[in-house]
Write a structure and sequence with these properties.
- Two copies of one chain form a homodimer.
- The termini of chain A are far apart.
- Chain A has a three-stranded antiparallel sheet with strand order 1-3-2.
- In chain A, a hairpin with an 8-residue loop joins strand 2 and strand 3.
- The mean pLDDT of chain A is 94.
- By secondary structure, chain A is mostly helical.
- Chain A is built from seven helices and three strands; from the N terminus they run H-H-E-H-H-E-E-H-H-H.
- The longest helix of chain A has 32 residues.
- Chains A and B meet through helix 1, helix 5, helix 6 and helix 7 of A and helix 1, helix 5, helix 6 and helix 7 of B.
- Chain A binds a DNA duplex through helix 4.
Chain lengths: 161, 161
DNA sequence: AAATTGGTTCTGTTGTTTCAGAACCAAACG
DNA sequence: CGTTTGGTTCTGAAACAACAGAACCAATTT
């Protein structure tokens, strides 16, 4: 039935907007977030350029740039079918996982930065602050290590031997 | 010696810029990041409005707005001294810790979002993708839980009984 | 009460980001 | 060869964010 199909499309459309905002907040341009959200929700889970463009009602350049960034981040890739020049873009779940891990591992930076601060401050006589900063540094280190361990454990469980 | 003092100031200045970029990348305006970095490095570790303004060579409004955002995020607070109208701004280490925890806990959002996607896709017949997405969701959930546990453990160790 | 101090808030400029539209280009097709 | 297809890259407009400068305001000080 056509109305049911339309209902679904409208539901997807609103979900895409909602999720798009989320991905936007993790550093992407609005349209980039929406492309990612659409690829998560479209059925089948791969979509050609013009389907994306049509669904999002955006310009070719906007869609092209969004796909380029998502691809270069490893979040999206594409498949092709013989006798068909189109690329069918889709979520790259492995790349996404790697990306998530990479972002988590980047947490160590704050720890390093804090160590530098502590080194700079070490001959200041303001020991209370030094101790408090140290607490933050220790927390940060504790968490980085813990997260690293969680990731390693997960990897161990999920390697195909 | 004056040159040594100047050297230190220049070293701090360059560290402030470098760290400022880091904090900027976690979502703050450039000047906001630099204010935070300066408060981490200045000695004593509290500084009045005009010292901050002078060091960063920025406008009053910029400094004021930066301090407002940092304060409202709980990352900075201030102390006062009797007979002195000025506020002395400083890093709020406890607030900072809370803020870090809060940000880490916000990781659950992606998991919830993915659950929603999976629910939407459940009657699609594309099981491979469904399984792959599920892996991401499980990973995300596993990590959220793990991090939550790490934080709880840390809190337990660091509560003053 | 007038002036100073320690900021805050408003206004406008400048720089940056996001995107649409058009030009472009390489591969495939006729 | 010229044309279509599936995009990519360039150009410019509009919206937005960051900030300087000035006006402002509530306490204090004179």
């Amino acid at each position: 039935m056509i109305t049911d199909e339309g209902d679904r499309t409208e539901r997807i459309r609103s979900k895409v907007e909602q999720m798009g905002v989320f991905f936007e907040r993790s550093g992407f341009a609005p349209i980039t977030g929406r492309v990612f959200a659409y690829l998560l929700l479209c059925d089948p889970p791969h979509s050609d350029f013009f389907a994306i463009q049509g669904f999002l009602r955006a310009s070719k350049s906007a869609v092209s740039n969004a796909l380029t960034t998502l691809t270069s981040e490893g979040l999206v890739d594409y498949i092709t079918f013989s006798g068909n020049r189109r690329r069918y873009f889709r979520i790259n779940t492995n790349g996404w996982l790697d990306n998530l891990k990479k972002r988590l591992r980047r947490m160590t930076v704050l720890g390093e930065l804090l160590d530098e601060v502590l080194r700079e401050r070490c001959n200041s006589n303001c020991s209370t602050f030094h101790r408090d900063l140290n607490t933050v540094a220790v927390f940060q280190n504790y968490l980085s290590k813990g997260i690293e361990q969680l990731i390693d454990e997960w990897d161990k469980k999920n390697t195909t031997n």
